From TrEMBL:
Pfam families: Rv2525c_GlyHyd-like. Transmembrane segments: none annotated. It comes from the Bacteria. Gene3D superfamilies: Glycosidases (3.20.20.80). Residues 3-210 form the Rv2525c-like glycoside hydrolase-like domain. This is Rv2525c-like glycoside hydrolase-like domain-containing protein.
Amino acid sequence: MNAWHGTSPYGAAVVYIGGRNRGCAQPQLTAGWVGSVSAAGWKLVPLYVGAQPPCQTGNSPEKLTADTATALGTSDGSDAVAKAGALGMRPGSTLYLDVEAYNTADTGCADAVLDYTRSWNRAVHNSGYWAGFYGFASSSAAGIAQAAAQNTPDLPDALWYARYDGAADTTGSFPFAAGLWTGHRRAHQYQVNQKESYGGAGLTVDRNAWDAPVAVVG
């Protein structure tokens, strides 16, 4: 982080704060680390890998069902708040829920995902945090956008969509109705697995165009 600060074009980094489907434990992600990199000038985007869709392929440790979606959303949302707070991310921070791709033609699956997401959002809001959502433009994010177009309540305050079109913006590339998530509440993951080196430190990164709220630290 020190090597890239000021030498790279980046000003923010995503941190996986929790969720049973998070890929690794990340013992070095501590309140001390968050405070240190924030003081150095970095912004942080807290991402929570919650329960995944019942129709999703793969072996996610936690999957929701139509029967468990609401209860799981509440418990996972509360857990996300607890994890963020323990890292020094204060109320007012936006916590992003990671829902991976699934078959949107499966309406039962899509409805369960929406129930889970809305319940997660309510739990986050009840603790004074904002709710964000990360998903694929062709599936998980599309389901949320469809619900937003229908004025469904308890939806995310910010939308972070994955669309690998190489367009580093959140306007011309925005794949949904132009009136949705305006007012600096959009982010776009436009390229993945890019090998880059700055200040003598090499990393493989995913590139995002960001015009959305992040964590509030300190």
